[in-house]
Known about the structure:
Layout: E1 3-6, E2 9-12, H1 13-32, H2 38-63, H3 65-68, H4 85-102, H5 104-133, E3 142-143, E4 149-150, E5 160-165, H6 170-185, E6 190-196, H7 200-210, E7 217-220, H8 224-229, E8 236-240, E9 246-251, H9 256-262
Parallel strand pairs: 5-6, 6-7
Antiparallel strand pairs: 1-2, 3-4, 5-8, 8-9
Amino acid sequence: MLSLSLGPLALSVPHLVLLLALGAALLVARCCAPVEGKRQADSSLFWLFVLAVVVARLGFVALYLEQYRATPWQAIDLRDGGFIPWLGIVVALAAAGVRGWRRPLERRALRWGLATGLAIWLAGGGLLLWQRDGSRLPQQPLTDTQGVPASLERYRGQPLVVNLWASWCPPCRREMPALVAAQAQRPDIRFVYINQRESPATAASFLGAAGVSPDDVLYDGGASLAKQVGAMALPTTLFYDRDGRLLGSHLGELSPASLAHALEVFGR
């Protein structure tokens, strides 16, 4: 399972784990705080979380500043998914230490709240890594532009980026130029675009305008491959190694920066 769909809202499983960790941290902090300090402990822990997210994001933007120069507004779009978690954690823990030193009533609540949140986040991340390591290249039958049966097995033996998309999906359309540009820059990696629930005739005009070669497009009329990998929303991008082992995934629109970061699993 890569993502969950809650009506119009789609959440990746890692984001869900993060929210569960935050909720548990707030609950534990409230339970551990003295009566007169419960509200302050909740507030402090929430703002420490916000601080961690902002710092982790700023660190990522600084690291990939070159990719943001052409589209600087994407730097503030948290849906981009680019973060440096350890940087945010270090800064938040340092801030928590200062906060606890200045406000003794909050020390116990902050200590146990942060410990609980980090434990759940790390445990959830470990389970997701274990699940990912057991994931292999999907075997679902697909068709090519000519309607001939095909499958992703034909690409085994080379690093592979699989993009699940549809022409009616605005984020899919917006991210396509970044994928096409990365494909031109990384000829060592094969990019495959799997259209969901559309016919070649429907997608042809968009693909031509986007500069995508028909040879790189497959069609999944029943969205069976998306169901197999647990992708509940579009766009979803999957990254496989030469042996068909899943190395990573991304829910939502990829910016040039977040795509460059994701491609590092293949080496530079």
